[in-house]
Amino acid sequence: MLELDIESADLTNALLSLSESGVVCILDSCGVGHLGSHLLIAGITPTDVREIAGDSADHSLEIFDQSLAEPKLVSFFSISYDLGSELQGTGVESSDPAEPQIFIARFDALIIHDYDTGRTHIAGNEQRAEILQSAAKTEISDRVEKCSARSDISQAEYYTAVEAIREQIRCGDTYQANLTHRITCRLPDATSPQTVFKRLRKRHPAPFAAFFARGNSTVISGSPERFFRSTFGDRRITTSPIKGTRPRGSDPDEDAALRQELLSSGKDRAENTMIVDLLRNDLGRICKFGSVTAEKDLRSRRTSVAVSLGIDGFRTASAAYQAV
Fold first, then answer.
1. Which partner for 322 in 65, 94, 136, 296 could form a disulfide, CB atoms 3.0-4.6 Å apart?
2. Within a domain: residue 319?
3. What residues make up the domain containing 245?
4. Could you tell me if 74 and 216 lie in one domain?
């Protein structure tokens, strides 16, 4: 691997600058260091980009598996919520027709920054280093103008939906529901996706942040939660859900008290138990019999007052990413 003489701040500016005119994908731990996340991994100048839309969910996933099978390329991808709903046979109230079911960008090089060592390398096509170095001195602002937000449902409609879920629980039709709604903000002209991401990672650094400039749209994530991690060699798959949060304290003592209150909460422990049972069942569908295990003790986050548990197993030989 070729080592690059570039600091993390300059690297972020360079990547965001390049994303203003091309497809750039960034996975960023923001230096938080949670669950072993200590890297920034990015791809610039993709060899090909594909948006899958309009197909059946199963066919879309077949194409997805084929795209990931190329051994000499690395794929960054996003999968829409609508695709998940179609796979589960559930409806979606607010579908976005412009959102592809699956977006895939494939790269012949990875830019990797290690926050622990402060070193940056490029793996693969080293010619990509010249493109990166040329943009290294570009400064991206983190100034974000205020904007108004609009929900796609009213407060009354939201309360009605909550009552409908409570009735389903009373009837035994469900024990878990994820009630979400879309909030839309129109960004001022002076505010770009690049400035939003830079400010987000500065003010609220998250171990599983992401920035995908996809050409016609941009995905920005500041997630504290690992959805799942899968390794190729031993086919281990791990998920680490977070359930239960408290506000941060104003000082270390208050922080510690809030963390202890959370760890002692029966309600939050019950919520964790519920999600662990659900995910253990999901992993059991694609893992070797008897290989799925769950941690017994709640684990508190260092950078926020939240708790999580880890569940892992070993995928069967036939369980490709389409099955996951």
1. 65
2. no
3. 227-314
4. yes
